[in-house]
Amino acid sequence: MKERSSDLIARDITRSILGGELKIQESLQSERDLAIHYKVGRPTIREALQRLERDGWTRSRKGMPAVVNDYWKQGNLMTIVTILQHEEEIPDAFIIHMLELRVAITPAYFRDAMENNKLKVISLFAPFEDMNDTAVTYAEFDWHIQHRVAMLSPNPIYLLILNSFRDVYIRMAEKYFSDSTHRAASRDYYGTLLKWILDGDLQQAEQTIRDMMETSITLWKQKMNGGKEG
Fold first, then answer.
1. According to the lineage, what is the superkingdom (predicted)?
2. Cβ density class 178-187: b for 16+ within 10 Å, e for less
3. How confident is the model at residue 99 (pLDDT cuts 50, 70, 90)?
4. Which helix (H) or strand (E) holds 68?
5. Ordered domains of the chain (ranges, CATH)
6. pLDDT, tens digit (0-9, with 9 covering 90-100), for 113-157
7. Which has fewest Cβ within 10 Å: 33, 143, 148, 217?
8. What span, in angstroms and rounded, lies between the C-alpha atoms of 24 and 17?
9. From CA 192, how far away is CA 150, in angstroms rounded?
């Protein structure tokens, strides 16, 4: 499906912001000048500007050109997604931020799902024993578990957050699981977690999840630091 002109223009302006050609707090050109530059009508420019504002990149000013936001402070979830869509290689530091987000939300939606749909959660582990020892397989299984468990939580916000990061999550997971020690740690983790769930000890299951999320951060920091702690 062909992209709309307004989407292409919004993407081009986003690239200019990320590339530093447009600075934070700098004004964009007027609608008229943008229309001339992109050779489109002003309604198309308005659509592009509305998208940029919706996704946290700019803010409108009555009677004046839009201005570039400090997107790390004034952006939103879509701002992050767009940043990563422009990155061919996910930055190592960003993986740390994503892993820290997992610490904050994963135990919560697992707890909700286990309390409300325990048997369905257990069924999600069926492919576990037959997984091939590859980064792609582990990444796909990890996404499968996280996404399905969030779906089983009665709180829909968790699923909306994960859905926003689907492609980025899998790319990040493949990079993380490219290390065989990370795959081994994950295999031990899922085996232990399944045991606690089968035993009905949801408190231990939740603690196991939290501990593994913290361990993932430590393992990744060690990888970034050449295998050393710190």
1. Bacteria
2. ebeebbebbb
3. confident
4. strand 64-68
5. 5-78 (1.10.10.10), 89-224 (1.20.120.530)
6. 999 999 999 999 998 888 899 999 999 999 999 999 999 999 999
7. 33
8. 8
9. 20
